């Protein structure tokens, strides 16, 4: 919202949310009715193509969002090296409002403007006239209107909303208050209405003009330089006819220069060109290599999780991952992504962040969670992970943390496979188990005297059990197999704290119980749970039980009368830069413990790997994380 909102700043359909597209229903119904009841076989193309144009513009916008985010995470040609936050993502969430408005106005124009019906696909004179009118009147009027918007009165009431984004993304281009966006439409309508009244309008001229506006808008608001230098060498006058991302970025950082729409000529004529425009273009085009210190290696979880990645849909990526029904409507793209993941032979960069003096990237293995379960996929997945490790090592990366199933014990022994295979690795590999265990331990409410350990045991579970026994907290298991595994891993002095109990006995394993120790009339109310906890098992918990996962993936919630904790994670420091996407199911500005562990490992300069059976000091790792500004998650009980 603008600093001091003026009249008609809010969009009329703001309260409708995604239901705003229902405003098109009457016009779509009219279009279908006219097509079915057409006379003499005549088809009103201008009426029929409105929705296809809308869909193409939406797809075009989504492409720019994803592609630009991919480039800013890996490109050396970044222009403004500052952070984007969740506030900006929320402010730019309504980027499609202007597309909806254009569709509604096109329908109205088709209904009421003489000559706007039954238009041909192509009219050469109409295309030429549109281009000339844009380069002349539209660009000229926009230039002076834009300068007027920077007057204090209009800027504080309208245009400041757009300039709240110092670091721009492509969709920043269309983030304006309703009144301002409507004024822009009136400007862009000059070529369209002129071709209507002159009888040379065509579907190509209208659709092409709208896509040209979108393309140039998005190009100019990228935060990396993508216009090649050879274009200006081949045709030097082009610098006056086409702006670049660096040219427009100066308008967002300096505010009083480079006002032009797409053609910088008017800035040169009226002396408002920023003096550093050429130098910034040169330096951004040449780029600057930035050393990456930390890499977090993750992978998509479900097929639809692709849209929740930072490279996916911005509105979904900025919220914790949950399944949404409308994402299934995009199944053709999802299926294509699955095919591409089978073909792809390397990782891809998801995001880039900074903390203090460290630069970090998140890389993703092009495989989904279900593929890690297939035995015939494991060799390929291992090759992908190993390739990523060696690539990061070659680039001088200090630490790589293995996220989710990339640290699977069945796949690579918690990363130990790569350490043994490549003993001269300079990069440190971290599975983050120690910090994850510390996060679990810190989540256990004070005063707890016993916990029930359920689900598939893991390295984190063994670390947690050891630490709890050290504190004389009883760790209860209900399966002989789990009890024996824990007994082997724990020092013999802790034997009295490890208990096999019948307080909770799964039906399938009642014959496995060797020892019955009755601790109380009720089973423990703190459950530490791993993967594989069934709904039936959850059903045996007493009301108010706290489920605290030590697994990488969250526990499926089947009880409304119990408390479910987050997977091991920590809140990131305020100075952590460029965090504007949620990590899977975690809340905003919360990071998985294994990812935090890699950052802490690099900040502390620790030289050892944390893989296989290697366990660091739990208290030291936790204190180190806190010292660098990471905080424990608030307890759900406190909330």
Automatic annotation (TrEMBL):
Q: Which Pfam families match?
A: CER1-like_C (PF12076), FA_hydroxylase (PF04116)
Q: Which InterPro entries match?
A: CER1-like_C (IPR021940), Fatty_acid_hydroxylase (IPR006694), Sterol_Desaturase_Related (IPR050307)
Q: Any idea where the Very-long-chain aldehyde decarbonylase CER1-like C-terminal domain is? A: 451-632
Quote the catalytic activity from the record. Answer: a long-chain fatty aldehyde + 2 NADPH + O2 + H(+) = a long-chain alkane + formate + 2 NADP(+) + H2O
Q: Which UniProt keywords apply?
A: Endoplasmic reticulum, Lyase, Membrane, Transmembrane, Transmembrane helix
**Tagged with keyword Membrane:** yes
Its localization reads:
Endoplasmic reticulum membrane
Family statement: Belongs to the sterol desaturase family.
Name by which UniProt lists this protein: aldehyde oxygenase (deformylating)
User: What is the organism of origin for this protein?
Assistant: Colocasia esculenta (Wild taro)
């Amino acid at each position: 919202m603008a600093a001091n909102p003026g009249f008609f700043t809010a969009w009329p359909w703001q309260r409708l949310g995604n239901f705003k597209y229902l405003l098109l229903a009457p016009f779509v119904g009219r279009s279908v009715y006219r097509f079915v009841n057409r006379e003499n076989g005549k088809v009103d193309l201008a009426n029929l193509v409105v929705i296809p144009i809308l869909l193409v513009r939406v797809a075009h916008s989504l492409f720019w969002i994803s592609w630009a985010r991919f480039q800013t995470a890996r490109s050396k040609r970044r222009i403004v090296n500052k952070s984007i936050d969740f506030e900006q993502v929320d402010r730019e969430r309504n980027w499609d409002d202007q597309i909806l408005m254009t569709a509604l106005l096109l329908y109205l124009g088709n209904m009421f403007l003489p000559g706007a019906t039954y238009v041909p696909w192509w009219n050469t004179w109409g295309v030429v006239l549109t281009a000339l009118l844009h380069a002349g009147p539209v660009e000229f009027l926009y230039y002076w209107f834009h300068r007027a918007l920077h007057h204090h009165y209009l800027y504080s009431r309208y245009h400041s909303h757009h300039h709240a984004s110092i670091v721009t993304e492509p969709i920043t281009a269309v983030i304006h208050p309703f009144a301002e966006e409507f004024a822009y439409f009136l400007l862009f309508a000059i070529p369209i209405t002129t071709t209507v009244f002159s009888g040379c309008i065509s579907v190509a001229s209208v659709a092409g003009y709208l896509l040209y506006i979108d393309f140039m808008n998005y190009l100019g608001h990228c935060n990396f330089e993508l216009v090649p230098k050879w274009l200006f060498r081949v045709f030097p006058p082009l610098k006056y006819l086409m702006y670049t991302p660096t040219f427009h970025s100066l308008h967002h950082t300096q505010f009083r220069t480079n006002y032009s729409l797409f053609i910088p000529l008017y800035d040169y004529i009226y002396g408002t060109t920023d003096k550093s425009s050429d130098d910034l273009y040169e330096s951004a085009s040449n780029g600057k290599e930035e050393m990456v210190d930390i890499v977090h290696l993750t992978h998509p979880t479900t097929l639809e999780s692709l849209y929740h990645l930072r490279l996916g849909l911005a509105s979904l990526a900025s919220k914790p991952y949950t399944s949404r029904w409308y994402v299934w409507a995009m199944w053709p793209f999802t299926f294509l992504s699955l095919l591409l993941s089978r073909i792809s032979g390397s990782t891809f960069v998801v995001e880039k962040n900074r903390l203090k003096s460290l630069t970090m990237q998140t890389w993703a293995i092009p495989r989904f969670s279900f593929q890690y379960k297939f035995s015939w996929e494991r060799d390929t997945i291992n090759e992908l992970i190993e390739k990523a490790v060696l690539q990061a090592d070659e680039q001088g990366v200090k630490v790589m943390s293995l996220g989710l199933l990339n640290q699977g014990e069945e796949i690579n022994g918690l990363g130990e496979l790569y350490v043994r295979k490549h003993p001269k690795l300079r990069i440190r590999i971290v599975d983050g188990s120690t910090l994850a265990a510390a996060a679990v331990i810190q989540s256990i409410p004070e005063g707890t005297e016993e916990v029930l350990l359920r689900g598939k045991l893991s390295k984190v579970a063994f670390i947690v059990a050891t630490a709890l026994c050290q504190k004389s907290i009883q760790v209860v298991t209900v399966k002989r197999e789990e009890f024996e595994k824990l007994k082997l891993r724990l020092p013999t002095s802790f034997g009295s704290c490890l208990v096999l109990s019948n307080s909770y006995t799964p039906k399938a394993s009642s014959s496995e119980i060797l020892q019955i120790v009755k601790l109380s009339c009720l089973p423990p109310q703190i459950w530490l749970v791993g993967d594989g906890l069934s709904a039936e098992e959850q059903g045996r918990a007493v009301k108010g039980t706290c489920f605290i996962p030590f697994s990488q993936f969250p526990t499926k919630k089947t009880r409304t009368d119990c408390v479910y904790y987050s997977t091991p994670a920590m809140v990131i420091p305020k100075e952590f830069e460029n965090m504007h996407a949620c990590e899977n199911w975690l809340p905003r500005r919360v990071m998985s413990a294994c990812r935090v562990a890699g950052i802490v490992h690099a900040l502390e300069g620790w030289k050892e790997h944390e893989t296989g059976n290697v366990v660091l000091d739990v208290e030291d790792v936790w204190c180190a994380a806190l010292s660098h500004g990471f905080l424990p998650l608030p307890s759900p009980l406190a909330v």
